[in-house]
């Protein structure tokens, strides 16, 4: 599981270095989630998920409030969630999750990001079967035994529990996100280094230097796209 946390850590570090862009993406994601139901995280699970993740990226409260108020105001902006799948060099697999108000534009720009950097788009389902949606939590200041005891008492269905980088990492079934979060919060753990639903590869690969350079170009091009919210892959990030 260490590879999985390393992948998430590298993604967070990349986004932390591009705060204005990631804040804008979170603003849109919060707006869309708030429109799926009541604009209240207590009754809207999708909104609750994105707000928990936004906290771990230090998204300012003003951006969160503005997105929720926009949803409350009955904005006519409509967005759809689309997933694209593709391949990079040497067996690398990539999943791209988007939010868009222009499907043709998004499909074109995602395809171009792959093709112009040596990758290839795949058909729906060609890559996702090699990934598992997973609830991931990172907890600082607690031992593995302490977290294990909390989760056992809550009868949470956890796939794996590890200590990595002076942090306890919890990997659970996606439908256990709320169970795990509530158990930890009830035990006094209210801040998380990671709290998200992620697509984690079943197996990770390493790339030779040239392939890694090409792969990085594909990932960077995809993450630079305005409509792209998340990019997942099966390449182990270099230490």
TrEMBL record:
Annotated GO CC locations: cytosol
TACO1/YebC-like N-terminal domain sequence ranges: 3-74
InterPro entries hit by this protein: Integrase-like_N, TACO1_YebC-like_2nd/3rd_dom, TACO1_YebC_N, Transcrip_reg_TACO1-like, Transcrip_reg_TACO1-like_dom3, YebC-like
Keywords: Coiled coil, Cytoplasm, DNA-binding, Transcription, Transcription regulation
One BP annotation, GO: regulation of DNA-templated transcription
Coiled coil spans: 208-238
Stretches assigned to the TACO1/YebC-like second and third domain: 79-235
Entry's Gene Ontology molecular function annotations: DNA binding
Classification via Pfam families: TACO1_YebC_N, Transcrip_reg
Taxonomic superkingdom: Bacteria
Protein location: Cytoplasm
Keyword Coiled coil in annotation: yes
Major localization class: cytoplasm
The family this protein is said to belong to: Belongs to the TACO1 family.
NCBIfam families to which the protein is assigned, alphabetical: PRK00110.1, PRK12378.1, YebC/PmpR family DNA-binding transcriptional regulator
Protein name in UniProt: Probable transcriptional regulatory protein MJB10_12065
Organism: Paenibacillus roseopurpureus
């Amino acid at each position: 599981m260490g590879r999985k946390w390393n992948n998430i850590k590298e993604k967070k570090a990349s986004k932390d270095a591009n705060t204005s862009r990631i804040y804008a993406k979170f603003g849109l994601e919060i707006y869309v989630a708030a429109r799926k139901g009541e604009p209240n995280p207590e009754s809207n699970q999708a909104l609750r998920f994105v707000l928990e993740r936004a906290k771990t990226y230090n998204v300012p409260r003003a951006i969160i409030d503005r997105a929720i108020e926009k949803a409350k105001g009955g904005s006519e902006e409509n967005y759809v969630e689309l997933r694209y799948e593709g391949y990079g060099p040497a067996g690398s697999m990539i999943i791209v999750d988007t939010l868009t108000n222009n499907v043709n534009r998004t499909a074109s720009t995602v395809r171009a990001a792959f093709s112009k950097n040596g990758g290839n788009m795949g058909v729906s389902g060609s890559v996702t079967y090699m990934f598992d949606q997973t609830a991931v939590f990172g907890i600082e200041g607690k031992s593995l035994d302490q977290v294990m005891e909390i989760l056992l008492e809550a009868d949470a269905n956890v796939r794996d529990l590890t200590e990595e980088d002076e942090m306890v990492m919890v990997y659970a079934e996606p439908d256990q996100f709320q169970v795990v979060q509530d158990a930890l919060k009830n035990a006094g753990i209210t801040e998380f280094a990671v709290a998200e639903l992620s697509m984690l590869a079943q197996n990770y690969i390493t790339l030779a230097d040239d392939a890694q350079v090409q792969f990085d170009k594909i990932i960077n091009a995809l993450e630079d796209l305005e409509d792209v919210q998340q990019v997942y892959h099966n390449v182990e990030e270099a230490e």
